[in-house]
Design brief:
single chain, 411 residues, mainly alpha, 14 helices
Length: 411
């Protein structure tokens, strides 16, 4: 016969077993607050799993971290916090291209920049496809541990919406500029339409001078009287009002474009130091032909060299403004990688407002690297041999720019 003490022990054991089963079931069902954890907190707890720790050890053993020369250079150029690094990057992409304008002759032909523009296209598309888009959807790899990506309903859709918004924003800006200038072309690098219009205006003015001389000779021969000689000013190239308007509107578009460059700097550095550094390199490659092309347009619009340089410096302040806006959004809007952020974010996902900046800038990069620049590279002339040689050079420059971005990412 079972004693009373044994009955109590059996009852207590059954009670503890039932309680343990209920606790484990609650954990499985997420009733212990798992749904309230942020993705970064879940990632941190996953690292405590024995299987994950074994995978981390295998990853470190199979691919030990080595400091490449690019990482050393980036660490030297960007030694601070994400905000400080973003401001430094803005200084790097705005300062040297503007100082380079002092070395440019006022009569530079923007069409001569086609090889440099092709190189910039490769850099922008390489940064977007090799760095920004993988970072947006999958995050950045870490050399000392494995990472898991949780698939959330509608998260990827919102990221795609942000990319499309960035693309459409530049479509609207370019379209508005074309409407304002009467369809003379948007915000591009070659500005060939403006250049051709100035030349046609100059030819027209020269024709008028020639006609006036012919009529003068006719009157002289008819009357037999030689009119008094009056000093005639040298024929100057007239600049139409539409070309002048295009120059001023181009400054507005350039200022807006630089704001998006600043947003790219801030969002990329808050994503990761590597993404920030590679984005800085890509934007720097793009800014050189961009600034020189805009400088040439301003000269054609009637600006002096000093005035054109001053105007370009003012537009460069747009990058600083965009960087400050991006830093404010990241600091106060938060991002999903922040440990302080918990619970649901935008539209029931883990995304925060700060997470939307990087896909937005990726959309602007896609527009600049394709719609805004590729049509210039597609233009051809009647000389087939010359155009074939130019095309091969442009493709080589484009692959060189993309190859640099791939090499940085690979290392």
């Amino acid at each position: 016969m079972v004693s009373r003490s044994h009955k109590s022990l059996v009852f207590l054991s059954v009670f503890l077993a039932v309680w343990a089963w209920n606790v484990s079931a609650a954990v499985v069902k997420g009733e212990t607050g798992v749904g309230e954890l942020s993705p970064s907190q879940i990632e941190e707890q996953l690292q405590d799993c024995s299987l994950v720790q074994a995978l981390n050890q295998h990853k470190v053993a199979s691919s030990p971290a080595t400091a490449s020369w690019t990482s050393q250079v980036f660490a030297f150029l960007f030694p601070g916090s994400p905000a400080v690094n973003a401001l430094l990057a803005t200084l790097y992409i705005s300062g040297p291209p503007n100082f380079l304008l002092a070395l440019c002759p006022p009569n530079i032909d923007p069409s001569s920049l086609s090889v440099m523009v092709a190189f910039a296209v490769g850099g922008l598309l390489g940064d977007t496809l090799f760095h920004l888009l993988p970072e947006i959807f999958l995050g950045e790899d870490e050399h000392d541990k494995v990472k898991f990506v949780m698939v959330e309903p509608n998260k990827n859709l919102l990221l795609g919406v942000a990319i499309m918004l960035g693309f459409v924003t530049f479509v609207a800006m370019d379209k508005g500029l074309r409407i304002a200038t009467g369809g003379e072309g948007g915000h591009d690098h070659s500005h060939s339409h403006s250049h051709e219009k100035i030349e046609s205006t100059a030819k027209a003015s020269g024709l008028e001078v020639k006609d006036s001389k012919d009529s003068l000779r006719a009157r002289k021969s008819a009357s037999g009287i030689t009119p008094p000689l009056t000093p005639k000013p040298e024929a100057e190239k007239e600049i139409s009002s539409s070309v002048k308007l295009a120059g001023y509107l181009n400054l507005i578009a350039d200022f807006t474009h630089n704001i998006t460059d600043g947003l790219a700097m801030s969002s990329s550095f808050y994503a990761s130091p590597t993404i920030g550094a590679t984005t800085t390199v890509a934007v720097f490659f793009h800014e050189i032909p961009h600034e020189v092309g805009d400088f040439a347009l301003l000269i054609q619009s009637g600006f002096s060299k000093k005035q054109a340089m001053g105007a370009q410096f003012i537009t460069a302040l747009g990058a600083l403004l965009g960087t400050c806006i991006g830093i404010a959004v990241q600091e106060y809007g938060g991002n999903s990688a922040s440990a302080e952020v918990s619970g649901l974010g935008l539209f029931g996902t883990s995304l925060q407002w700060g997470d939307m900046l990087l896909p937005f800038t990726a959309g602007t990069f896609l527009y600049v690297g394709t719609v805004a620049v590729i049509p210039e590279l597609l233009e051809t002339g009647p000389d087939k041999a010359k155009e074939l040689k130019s095309t091969l050079t442009q493709f080589a420059a484009m692959f060189a720019g993309a190859g640099i971005m791939l090499a940085i990412s690979w290392s």
